[in-house]
Design a protein that fits this description.
Strand order of the largest sheet: 1-2-3
CATH topology of the largest domain: Citrate Synthase, domain 1
Bound molecules: coenzyme A
Order of helices and strands: HEEEHHHHHHHHHHHHHHEEHHH
Number of domains: 2
Distance between the termini: 36 Å
Low-confidence stretches: none
Number of helices: 18
Structural class: mainly alpha
CATH superfamily of the largest domain: Citrate Synthase, domain 1
Mean pLDDT: 96
Shape: globular
Number of strands: 5
CATH class of the largest domain: Mainly Alpha
Helix content: 55-70%
Radius of gyration: 22 Å
Length: 402
């Protein structure tokens, strides 16, 4: 027997553009509050100070803090899964021309590579909890390898660590940097990268995570959901903001010159941006109204490391980027009462680590894959199709042959 169609709720009352303030579901993975960010019961400052990315990845994917034995086994499994199938390596090589021409950016190439990973994964069509966890670990292990190999292709360097996906003695964060450059990072560089991965790992129902849940909610597979998540994260209003924030700082420097840092020339640049209603990248947040808990942590670490670096980065000493960044932050807060989000310090930090700007968002993926997979598993474990309603704003009904 057909059931009656549910009545549409009062449109005006129910509509929130961009789903602002709408509760889209339940999750045990993460909680965002104005005064704290929690991953499965642990607060982000605590994690950034005391945990490693591998521990946080286990926490998110498996659901509890690992003991020593669990962590050892998890790390061994991830290291064993780092190498890529030849089909993925071959694709990365063939993408060189598209990357060089600008027709494709690294986020696009990563998205396609993840799709190919799905074809090479024997569990691809299996949405059981056990298969999903196995796929999560493989994605976590292989995405940094994709990023590293892709950067080698872009730089025209021989692939670093082709056989084993880098150096098995290195941590996840250190190995990512090693694969991108062929140089083993210092302990401080590795720790800054590690903490940035912890900070980026999970953030509740943000746009890309929600995308992965919508896809998973149709009972589609994990690789498809992750490919969708990468598409959503690429945009400059979301993960792409870390690249856009650095591009903006470079634009300010090109306009005011090194001598202009700390002077009213920066205020003038900013005022012009305000007058033209330009969005300043790396600022603002849909949920946080008093500042992003993650931003201060990464800013502090990046600035501390920059103070130890010699030479110039994009034409100025590393520390000067943070002087400029702090000036921009101060103007934004004074004039607009808008705080930086995590992508703002990320831009300066990765730049002074000599990481090419177009890889900032792919590195974000190398971290957020943990949050996405945790949410995909949670969605599959207690699924209901995600299917909201809309308000029709098109023309009134009319006959085709009218
Ligand atoms: N630069 C300038 N103005 C900004 C701003 C920014 N980065 N972020 C918000 N604002 C202003 C808006 O112009 C708007 O002003 P108005 O009311 O006078 O029109 C007001 O603040 C509210 O912003 P709104 O765009 O409605 O907020 P939102 O919740 O829809 O958007 C973001 C949130 C993150 C998309 C938005 O802050 C933004 O575009 N930031 C830059 C991109 C970014 O850093 N993204 C990463 C987020 S982690």
């Amino acid at each position: 027997m057909a059931t009656a169609a549910p009545a549409k709720p009062d449109a005006a009352a129910a509509f929130a553009k961009g789903l602002e303030g709408v509760i889209g579901g339940q999750t045990a993975v993460c909680s965002i509050e104005q005064d704290k960010l929690i991953y499965r019961g642990f607060e982000i400052h605590d994690l950034a100070e005391h945990a490693t990315f591998e521990e946080v990845a286990f926490l998110l994917l498996v659901g509890h803090k690992p003991d020593v034995q669990e962590l050892g086994q998890f790390k061994a499994e991830i290291i064993a899964e780092r190498a890529l199938h030849p089909a993925v390596v071959s694709f990365l090589g063939s993408a060189a021309g598209w990357l060089a021409s600008g027709r494709a950016v690294p986020m696009d190439v990563l998205r396609t590579a993840v799709s190919i990973l799905g074809h090479t994964d024997a569990d691809c069509q299996d949405n059981s909890a056990a298969a999903n966890l196995r796929k999560s670990k493989r994605l976590l292990a292989k995405i940094p390898t994709i990023v590293g190999h892709m950067q080698n292709v872009i730089d025209g360097r021989a692939i670093v660590g082709l056989e084993r996906g880098g150096d098995p003695s290195l941590s996840h964060a250190a190995n990512l940097l090693y694969m991108m450059t062929g140089r083993r990072p210092s302990a401080e560089e590795a720790r800054v990268m590690d903490v940035s991965l912890i900070l980026y790992a999970e953030h509740e129902f943000n746009a890309s995570t929600f995308t992965t849940r919508v896809i998973a909610g149709t009972l589609s597979d994990m690789h498809g959901a992750v490919a969708g998540g990468i598409g959503a994260l690429k945009g400059p209003l979301h993960g792409g903001a870390n690249e856009a924030a650095m591009d903006m700082l470079k634009e300010i420097l090109a306009s005011v010159g090194e001598q202009g840092i700390g002077t009213p020339a920066v205020d003038t640049w900013m005022q012009n941006a305000f007058d033209t209603k330009r969005k300043l990248m790396g600022f603002g947040h849909r949920v946080y109204k008093n500042g992003d808990h993650r931003a201060g942590i990464l800013h502090g670490l990046g600035k501390k490391m920059a103070a130890t670096l010699s030479g110039t980065f994009g034409g100025i000493p590393a520390g000067k980027w943070f002087v400029l960044g702090e000036q921009v932050q101060k103007i934004m807060l004074t004039k607009k009462n808008i705080h930086p989000n995590v992508d703002f310090p990320c831009g300066m930090t990765y730049f002074t680590m000599n990481i090419p700007v177009p890889q900032y968002t792919p590195i974000f993926v190398a971290s957020r894959i943990t949050g996405w997979c945790a949410h995909i598993m949670e969605q599959h474990a207690d699924n209901r199709l995600i299917r909201p309603l809309s308000i029709y704003t098109g023309p009134a009904q009319k006959p085709w042959n009218g």
